[in-house]
């Protein structure tokens, strides 16, 4: 005989006091991040939450690019999430990077394509991976640096997007090497000119509509 349905009364059901807030924050995070695979992203979200790690959550909803018909790849917001999660260690394992990448529902082939641009092993320098990600977003060295400044800056959103000169120099030099078409002497001359003009050794765009113009601020 089938067992009778169990009956519960309100007094028997105990809801953990922290559950409503957890679910509320989770829902808001999912709406902001807009994951393509909610279950996969949720696994990463609650795994990070249980460990006290940075959550795979965008700062805000990203509007799709007008020319992007299918939004399934890396975006500035997702790259910024990865930076928050992986930058504290400086170096990350390939397995850890792949896990975080997967939790953000990003195509694994896109990650493999990025990593093929350098001779990475099982341990990777995160800032180099970030630089390659910015390059994939920008399509050119100047555009890549613009994305890097916007991701790395501590300025409020919409501000000058300043970053330290040493960080700018490292990323610019690395991407120039990966590009392979910019003479080393030209890279050194450009960075020397910037450093010589620096006041606080931080840099921003002179004109947000012309990313070729940089200045120290």
TrEMBL record:
One of its GO terms (molecular function) is identical protein binding. GO terms for cellular component: motile cilium; nucleoplasm; radial spoke. Its main location: other. It comes from Sphenodon punctatus (Tuatara). It is found in: Cell projection, Cilium, Flagellum. Belongs to the ropporin family. PANTHER family: ROPPORIN-1-LIKE PROTEIN. Keywords: Cell projection, Cilium, Flagellum. This is Ropporin-1-like protein. Signal peptide: none annotated. It comes from the Eukaryota. GO terms for biological process: flagellated sperm motility; sperm capacitation.
């Amino acid at each position: 005989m089938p067992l009778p349905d169990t009956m519960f009364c309100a007094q028997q059901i105990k809801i953990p006091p922290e559950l409503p807030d957890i679910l509320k924050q989770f829902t808001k995070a999912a709406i902001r991040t807009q994951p393509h695979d909610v279950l996969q992203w949720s696994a990463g979200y609650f795994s990070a939450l249980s460990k006290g790690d940075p959550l795979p959550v965008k700062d805000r909803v990203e509007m799709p690019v007008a020319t992007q018909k299918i939004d399934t790849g890396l975006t500035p917001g997702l790259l910024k999430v990865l930076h928050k999660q992986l930058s504290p260690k400086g170096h990350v394992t390939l397995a850890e990077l792949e896990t975080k990448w997967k939790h953000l529902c990003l195509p694994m082939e896109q990650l493999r394509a990025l990593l093929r641009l350098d001779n990475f092993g099982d341990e990777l320098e995160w800032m180099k991976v970030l630089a390659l990600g910015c390059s994939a977003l920008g399509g050119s060295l100047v555009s890549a640096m613009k994305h890097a400044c916007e991701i790395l800056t501590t300025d409020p959103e919409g501000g000058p997007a300043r970053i330290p000169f040493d960080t700018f120099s490292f990323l610019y030099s690395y991407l120039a090497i990966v590009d392979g078409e910019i003479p080393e002497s030209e890279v050194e001359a450009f960075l020397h000119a910037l450093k010589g003009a620096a006041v606080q050794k931080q840099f921003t765009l002179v004109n947000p509509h012309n990313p070729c113009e940089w200045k120290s601020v």
